[in-house]
Design goal:
Layout lengths: L2 E8 L12 E9 L5 E8 L9 H16 L1 H17 L5
Antiparallel strand pairs: 1-2, 2-3
Length: 92
């Protein structure tokens, strides 16, 4: 299965806890089962020019990263379904 790691940064580029009040940027790194990085989704929230709703934006970005982790399973399901429709004897 694919996994997501979350990294949070302050204005100086140092990693901080995700609840740190100095946090201004969060990266979500998606890796495959071998550990290879397959995607990165990020969000900045360093003031109103970035966002007025930082907590919601981080939660939405986290959800998007989690959605990516399910892509291989979703694609396998879709391919199996298409194979069923295209060639199976009981296709509708």
């Amino acid at each position: 299965p694919w996994s997501v790691e979350e990294f949070t940064w302050n204005r100086n580029g140092a990693t901080v806890d995700k609840d740190d009040p100095d946090a201004v940027h969060t990266d979500f790194v998606v890796s495959d089962s071998s550990g290879a990085k397959v995607a990165e989704v990020s969000v900045s929230y360093d003031g109103p020019e970035d966002t007025d709703t930082p907590a919601e934006d981080v939660a939405e970005t986290r959800a998007n990263a989690e959605l990516i982790t399910r892509a291989p399973e979703d694609l396998l399901y879709l391919l199996a379904y298409l194979d069923h429709l295209a060639g199976a004897a009981d296709a509708e």
